[in-house]
Design brief:
The chain has 635 residues and is α+β, with helices and mostly antiparallel strands. Helix content is 34%, strand content 26%. The model has no long low-confidence stretch (mean pLDDT 91).
């Protein structure tokens, strides 16, 4: 059997797939040590399946360790080494305001303060060495770094993406002083692309998170080994699995580990249901993650900001907002009702959980309105406390001068508006008409809000998978193994030839296959392209993009879709090449012969194994062959 385990802000989900069955289980997340909740969820899934650890052939894991550490500022004591004169690049950044009309808003401070930034006496040019790094000076630099007592070191030297010789020399000197136990992140290995600030910030982030992730994975590996389970594979932000050792060495690969599992599941549902175009929203206890599946493939991005910090790595194109079942409703200074981004999380959780929470959440609002009933336990056997939910919502209603039911309805409308905004960011703002897509709703709370969101966007079809409440964990079980490599090539004019692209692709593919230890891994190639003279690029990909002419055609089509125009005579530049070596995952059969078919006409509330579905008037539908509930407007 295949086992997938996904750690969320409130629940940890486990899915066992194999032998024609999909068995699910939930446990409350244990923030102090997520591995405890992981093992509880695994034990419950094995018990529900009547299986043992020996029946598990592969274990895939999506987690929030790196994400939580970044959001909470709980990072390792890190030193930063840069070319002399450039040590403050991580603080200078792009010298732009994060919010145009809020002059008081500032970016998160660098993870390394000035006293732990060190200048390397060297200078590499884009084509040659301008100042060689002498071995003696490298040793002196390493001694100064060691004296600062770092738990990790980030090294980002000028033009190392072209020639990494000096970064390698710095690491050799640091190893001699610090030993092998202190992680050293080199920018040409972590990022491999140009743009100094983004490369430096990503490398700093990798170094600062790696000791924490490594400690977590060691605890998890110890517990899974003691239980007789396979060594876990870890989900990366790029949407593929990698071995635990690689993840432990480069924590920045996992900052979107959990949401990426949901994206993998969305692609699985798209193939199984025959609906290649999906807008997906995963509403859990703490947040809502939104992504787009187009022509059966999840869209990717060449990089993004996470918690206000740039991460210059390929990752699944996901937009996250703080709207989950545990998001807290509150009154702002102007007297308006607001929801989130603060969440009650797993501890204490919503007031209805009866675990000490007193603030009103989206879950409490559903209890007040009756869409969640105290007579039916939630997934994992948790029984709701209706009195506590009414008391929490009632206190906020008094502050706002509303009746409790009106306050609860307002909480839901505000949360819906936040999720609609996120879906518009991923569609309308990028030239995509959401009415051409079906809405895939999953997560424990997603199907409760699906119809309201679909009505707002003009979507007429909703898919709710059978394992909706644990779909991210199912995606982990079925995910491909993947190793992504990238390199800036800056090819334009006469240098942009089919042979030059093929040579760069082959080199990166060989690196990826080596990481996977799989010489047969198939390539997935993407190109960052721009018109010559532009400052930023668009990413294009596809199975047939192998020559310069094909890349140009794809780029111009994407440019016109995004910006409304193309320049047929303009010279293009392939800036960065991204190659993923992909070993396809095992197939998962979503059909369950023992499942009772559903047929529903709204208004109704359906209580499924892991989630609850609200079907308002005007909506109706039935389950398909895979057990997915297909709802249609006007059915």
């Amino acid at each position: 059997m295949l086992l997938g385990v996904d750690v969320g802000g409130t629940y940890t989900d486990a899915v066992l797939a194999g032998g024609g069955r999909v068995v699910t289980a939930k446990a409350l997340t244990t923030p102090a040590d997520q591995s405890l909740g992981v093992m509880t969820a695994i034990e419950r899934a094995l018990a529900a399946a009547g299986a043992g650890a020996a029946d598990v052939r592969a274990l895939a894991h999506g987690m929030t360790v790196a994400t939580n550490a970044l959001l909470e500022g709980d990072t390792a004591r890190t030193a930063f080494v840069a070319t002399a004169g450039f040590t403050d690049v991580i603080e200078l950044a792009r010298q732009t305001r994060p919010e145009l009309y809020r002059l008081c808003a500032s970016r998160p401070p660098p993870l390394t303060p000035p006293e732990r930034r060190f200048a390397a006496p060297e200078r590499m040019g884009p084509a040659s060495t301008l100042r060689a790094l002498e071995p003696g000076l490298a040793r002196a630099l390493a001694r100064a770094v060691a004296a600062s007592g770092p738990q990790a070191v980030a090294v980002c030297l000028l033009h190392a993406w072209r020639d990494p010789a000096h970064e390698l020399l710095v690491r050799k000197a640091l190893r001699a002083e610090l030993g092998e136990d202190v992680p050293v992140a080199l920018s040409h290995e972590v990022v491999g692309t140009f743009r100094e600030y983004e490369r430096a910030a990503t490398t700093e982030l990798d170094a600062a998170l790696t000791p924490l992730l490594g400690a977590y994975l060691r605890r998890l590996l110890g517990r899974t080994s003691a239980a007789g389970l396979p060594v876990p594979q870890v989900m990366q932000s790029s949407g593929g699995l990698v071995d635990a050792a690689t993840a432990a060495d480069h924590a920045v690969l996992t900052v979107l580990s959990g949401p990426a599992g949901g994206a993998a599941a969305a692609a699985l549902i798209a193939r199984a249901s025959g609906a290649p175009n999906l807008l997906c929203f995963d509403m859990g206890g703490t947040s809502c993650d939104v992504c787009v599946v187009q022509d059966g493939r999840v869209r990717e991005s060449a990089g993004r900001e996470v918690a206000g910090r740039p991460v210059a790595l390929a990752m699944v194109d996901i937009h996250t907002v703080g709207a989950g079942g545990g998001s807290i409703g509150w009154r702002d200074a102007g007297g308006a009702l607001r929801v989130g981004p603060r969440s009650a999380g797993a501890v204490p959780g919503p007031a209805a959980y009866g675990r000490g929470g007193t603030e009103p959440t989206v879950t409490d609002a559903h209890v007040v309105l009756g869409t969640l009933s105290a007579d039916r336990p939630l997934a994992g056997g948790l029984r709701l406390d209706a009195d506590a939910a009414h008391a929490a919502v009632g206190r906020l209603a008094d502050e706002l001068g509303l009746m409790p039911a009106a306050c609860a309805a307002g909480i839901l409308r505000v949360a819906d508006a936040e999720m609609v905004r996120a879906l518009r960011v991923m569609t309308i703002e990028r030239g995509i008409d959401p009415r051409d897509f079906a809405l895939l709703a999953f997560g424990g709370a997603g199907p409760l809000h699906a119809a309201a969101i679909a009505d707002e966007l003009g979507i007429r079809r909703i898919l709710v998978p059978r394992a909706s409440g644990v779909l991210s964990a199912l995606g982990l079980a079925a995910a491909d193994r993947r190793a992504s490599r990238q390199r800036s090539v800056l090819l334009t004019g006469a240098a942009l030839t089919d042979a030059a692209l093929a040579s760069a692709r082959a080199a990166l593919l060989a690196e990826g296959r080596a990481i996977l230890a799989d010489p047969g891994a198939v390539p997935h190639v993407a190109y960052d392209v721009r018109y010559r003279g532009q400052s930023h690029e668009l990413t294009v990909d596809g199975p047939d993009l192998e020559g310069a002419a094909a890349v140009r055609t794809a780029f111009e089509a994407e440019h016109e879709l995004r910006y409304g125009w193309r320049e047929p005579d303009g010279e293009i530049e392939v800036v960065t090449l991204r190659v993923a070596a992909v070993a396809p995952g095992d197939p998962v059969d979503l059909a369950d012969p023992g499942q009772e078919p559903l047929d529903v006409t709204g208004p109704a509330v359906l209580h499924l194994a892991e989630t609850t579905v609200a079907v308002p008037a005007g909506w109706g539908g039935a389950t398909d062959a895979t057990g997915t509930l297909v709802l249609e407007r006007g059915a």
